[in-house]
Amino acid sequence: MSETNELLSVRNAKKSFRLGGLLSTKEIIAVNEVSFTLFKDKPDILSIIGESGSGKSTLSRLILRLLLPDSGNIELEGKDVHAMKGRKQELDYMRRVQPIFQNPFETFNPLNRVDEFLLATAKNYYPGEKPELTKERVEMALQAVGLSLSEVGGRYPHELSGGQLQRSSVARAIIPNPKILVADEPVSMVDASLRMSIVNLFQDLKNKLGTSIIYITHDLATAYYISDRIAIIHKGYFVEQGETAPILTNPKHPYTKLLVESTLDPRPGATSLADGDISTGDEEYLAVGCKFAARCPRAMDICRKVQPEETIDGTWKVRCHLYGGNI
Ligand SMILES: Nc1ncnc2c1ncn2[C@@H]1O[C@H](COP(=O)(O)OP(=O)(O)O)[C@@H](O)[C@H]1O
Ligand code: SF4
Ligand SMILES: [Mg+2]
């Protein structure tokens, strides 16, 4: 049987939520027909970029098996991740796909020393191993993020700086030597001056350890800097995806254009996606046709009636009526 080169395949993933509680009849599709693939032979940094409330965390939770999709499927090395059952299969999945959360304080128990927590994590993945070897694993993980046991040893989470703590949470994630890191807004709570050093770390991990990274963010600038590929998500749909540089230098989808322009706009007070302040709530989720039509400068009649299909040109995919058939 031939082995697949697909590391992670997300196919037509869909997840809906009822708005305003169980009795409400209104529903939004938080993640809609999302598809993408990471390959084994080519570690990638894929950035998923969108405003607040566009479905990013829902997608991340689907990939991490914290939510079940309504339809579509997610496969890791050819196996449906939501069909995995039992402690052994779950641990096996967690070895290969690790999360990095927005708030490093959520990763660490405030009452536990950081080194103890990391050692316990290593023991969990490699039970029965000699203590010296466990310690060595933790030391290696810390060194890969520019720290060491002597630096974090004996210290509690609040005794480390925000940057050190987020680095330690990346160290925790790489202890089992995962193939994929899913980082949901990993730098949005880190001081702006330290953000670049954390995202640079992702590039290092990709280059040195061959780890693929799904970097979820509303910060176009860091995504532009580190990612090989990007996907722009708007109200559940990937509206544009492909290689980073061509898309961000010559965006095709009007929403991507808005994001790029708002990031580059130097006027004081100009809205910037980096501030996460141009979110539009759930109204756009409920729109018929293209969800972006109410804000789109190029909207046509058809846009308010029919949801655009994806137009594909090689690896470049755009979901917009302007490109019906060709891009
Ligand atoms: N557990 C949930 N129950 C109901 N609605 C949810 C739930 N999780 C997310 N949503 C809704 O789904 C939409 C997308 O949310 P989310 O995935 O958190 O977006 P993002 O991470 O891009 O900010 C939002 O409208 C949010 O209110
Ligand atoms: S489908 Fe229409 S409304 Fe939507 S982005 Fe394209 S032109 Fe604008
Ligand atoms: Mg989120």
Task: Please provide a written account of the structure.
This protein starts with 5 loop residues before the first strand and ends in an 8-residue tail after the last strand. Helix 4 (114-125) packs across helix 5. 34% of the residues lie in helices and 23% in strands. The strands form 2 sheets. It has an 8-stranded mixed sheet with strand order 6-7-8-3-9-10-12-11, with helices on both faces. A 4-stranded antiparallel sheet has the order 2-1-4-5, covered by helices on one side. The chain has helices at residues 56-63, 86-96, 104-107, 114-125, 131-144, 149-152, 162-174, 192-209, 220-226, 244-249, 254-264, 283-286, and strands at residues 6-18, 27-39, 45-49, 71-76, 79-80, 97-100, 180-184, 212-217, 229-234, 237-243, 310-313, 316-319. It contains 12 helices and 12 strands. The chain has a single domain, classed as P-loop containing nucleotide triphosphate hydrolases (Rossmann fold, 3-Layer(aba) Sandwich), CATH 3.40.50. Residues 274-278 have low confidence and may be disordered. The radius of gyration is 21 Å and the shape is globular. With 327 residues, it is α/β, with parallel strands linked by helices. Adenosine-5'-diphosphate (ADP) binds next to strand 2 and helix 1.
